[in-house]
Amino acid sequence: MLEKFLPYSTQSIDDSDILSVTQALKSSHLTQGAQVKKFEDSIASFVGVGKAIAFNSATSALYAAFRGVKDMVYNADFVRNLIKDSKDCLDSKILRLMDAPNFASARKKKKISIITTPISFVATTNMMLENDITPIFVDIEMNGNINTAKIESALQDDTLAICSVDYAGNSVDVVALRKLCEKHNLLFISDSSHAFGATFQGEKVGSFADVSIFSFHAVKPIATCEGGALVTNSNFFATLAGLVCSHGVVKKSLFNYDCITLGFNFRMNEISAALGLSQMKRLQSFITQREKIAQFYNEYFKGNPFFFTPDSIKTQDSIKVSRNETSHSVMLSKSETSNLNKSQNLDSKNPNNIESNRQDSKEFIESKKPDSKEFIESNFQKTQSTRHLYPLLLDPKYVCSKEQIANDLNAQNVGVQVHYKPIYNFSAYQKFNYPLLRNAEDFYHAELSIPCHQNMDLNLAKQTADIILKTFEKLKY
């Protein structure tokens, strides 16, 4: 049992953060001051985009993004007026899309749909519904991200965008998604709430999509307590986001202002922005430490008979399912299981492998010290996850015991969580009569997120891993 409760993820606050927050508290402005603008500029520069708008949450930022899609259909003159002098390529694309057949169809039918994944926090699609947009759910791959190969067959004549989610901080295949969007006249919106600081082929996540959303919730890569941002290269989406964020008001001078569209108070405050600016200085060190913990788990858990680690199954592998009224089980095909065991050169049914892996991992800890430059460089590739989550997928025979396993681990101060229940299973979505999606269902029943964050060192990771393995060993199968 761990001495203190270890959450699956948490913030890291140091003296520099406290000093930044204290200075913000002592300033003349607690809201609508200089810190928010500095934070926005810092985000835009870091990601490599032209514009960033800070919000009080990623949920609010998502609302603004989908509001933009809605306005392109029902408020076209307003959109054209906002970008009439823009020379941005993305704004030219927006003007072109508004005349595309799918946008015309949506306008005529008064119905908009957007392709997305069911494995996400419900805010992703709640904000679609809030904008009278119907989500179309497409099944996932084994890494939790949307299966790009299944998108094309799900498109409808009123589908106007793809909204991907970078599950656990792992980038989706942005190249494939951009090609689909170009081919079918779609906007590319990325809910990258898990992925601030992640990269794809050497470029920052957030620089690929037409609009991207980040979260700065306390468990995310950096924390502003609560907070989020919308980033884009579009004058339209940036201007609209600013309007939605602050009451829809345009202010030219003290007594000359106008409300030109409906907006809200979604603003980030100065204190949160100051904390965000301070946290950004340590973002890469946070991600580096998360990666160290994840790589340790990968090695330590290799060949265990209880669960699969995120890196042990290729994204193209599919999940086979068998189900009855009282139980759920996730089944890999024989060939997939065989290939997985072969690739690890281990017999997963041999309990001696657990002890062998522990010994290997003892050597791993000793040889890979926390400050090892070789360790960092050898494990960082051009496509880099933030490791926001470290999700385990339970072996089929343990799926029925997942709740017991979770309760046992929490009782031993190992905080675990489930990410996520398929969105279409929530009560608020039953009226849409969505079909069940096989991989999404099986992923949910098998998934368990374990602690993996920057406040852990390798010794704590080993203690955590030992507790996890012993908890599974106690189950008799």
From TrEMBL:
<dbReference type="Pfam" id="PF01041">
    <property type="entry name" value="DegT_DnrJ_EryC1"/>
</dbReference>
<dbReference type="InterPro" id="IPR015424">
    <property type="entry name" value="PyrdxlP-dep_Trfase"/>
</dbReference>
<dbReference type="InterPro" id="IPR015421">
    <property type="entry name" value="PyrdxlP-dep_Trfase_major"/>
</dbReference>
<protein>
    <recommendedName>
        <fullName>UDP-4-amino-4, 6-dideoxy-N-acetyl-beta-L-altrosamine transaminase</fullName>
    </recommendedName>
</protein>
<comment type="similarity">
    <text>Belongs to the DegT/DnrJ/EryC1 family.</text>
</comment>
<feature type="compositionally biased region" description="Polar residues">
    <location>
        <begin position="330"/>
        <end position="356"/>
    </location>
</feature>
<dbReference type="InterPro" id="IPR015422">
    <property type="entry name" value="PyrdxlP-dep_Trfase_small"/>
</dbReference>
<keyword id="KW-0663">Pyridoxal phosphate</keyword>
<dbReference type="GO" id="GO:0000271">
    <property type="term" value="P:polysaccharide biosynthetic process"/>
</dbReference>
<dbReference type="InterPro" id="IPR000653">
    <property type="entry name" value="DegT/StrS_aminotransferase"/>
</dbReference>
<dbReference type="GO" id="GO:0008483">
    <property type="term" value="F:transaminase activity"/>
</dbReference>
<feature type="region of interest" description="Disordered">
    <location>
        <begin position="330"/>
        <end position="361"/>
    </location>
</feature>
<dbReference type="GO" id="GO:0030170">
    <property type="term" value="F:pyridoxal phosphate binding"/>
</dbReference>
